[in-house]
């Protein structure tokens, strides 16, 4: 992914707001859990996914299926992915 080069200031409470463009790309909603890691001189934020969260739609359901490589899809997510792959071929 190409770097956006957005600069944000840390407020008095140590908070940094994530730009709406980034939240939208990663489908991060208000109050969503985000993991914070440190790697040498980098601070890494990672969206915390529920084990059954569909990677396409974000739906969480016991009917979602886990596929090879840790891919989780709902029925609707699988249909969306199938049609997208069908169009590109």
Could you describe the 3D structure shown?
This protein has 89 residues and is an alpha+beta fold. It folds into two domains: 42 residues, Pemi-like Protein 1, Chain: D (Ribbon); 39 residues, no CATH class. It has two helices and four strands, in the order H-E-E-E-E-H. The strands form two sheets. Strands 1-2 form a two-stranded antiparallel sheet. Strand 3 and strand 4 form a beta hairpin. The protein is elongated, with a radius of gyration of 16 Å. The two termini are 24 Å apart. The model has no long low-confidence stretch (mean pLDDT 88).
Order of strands, widest sheet: 1-2
Question: Average pLDDT across residues?
Answer: 88
| Major sheet description | 2 strands, antiparallel
Structural Rg: 16 Å
Oligomer: single chain
Report strand %: 15-25%
Query: How would the global form be characterised?
Result: elongated
Under the CATH scheme, which class of the largest domain?
Mainly Beta
Question: What keyword list fits this structure?
Answer:
about 90 residues; alpha+beta; Pemi-like Protein 1, Chain: D; two-stranded antiparallel sheet; two-stranded antiparallel ribbon; 4 strands; elongated
Q: What's the arrangement of secondary structure elements?
A:
Elements: H1 20-25, E1 34-39, E2 42-47, E3 65-67, E4 71-73, H2 75-88
Antiparallel strand pairs: 1-2, 3-4
Structure in a nutshell:
With 89 residues, the protein is α+β, with helices and mostly antiparallel strands. It has helices at residues 20-25, 75-88; strands spanning 34-39, 42-47, 65-67, 71-73.
């Amino acid at each position: 992914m190409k770097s956006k080069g957005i600069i944000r200031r840390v407020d008095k409470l140590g908070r940094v707001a994530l730009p709406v463009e980034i939240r939208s790309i990663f489908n991060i909603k208000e109050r969503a859990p985000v993991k914070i890691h440190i790697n040498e001189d980098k601070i890494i934020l990672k969206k915390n996914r529920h084990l059954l969260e569909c990677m396409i739609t974000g739906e969480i359901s016991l009917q979602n299926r886990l596929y090879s490589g840790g891919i989780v899809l709902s029925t609707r997510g699988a249909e969306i992915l199938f049609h997208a792959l069908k169009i590109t071929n």
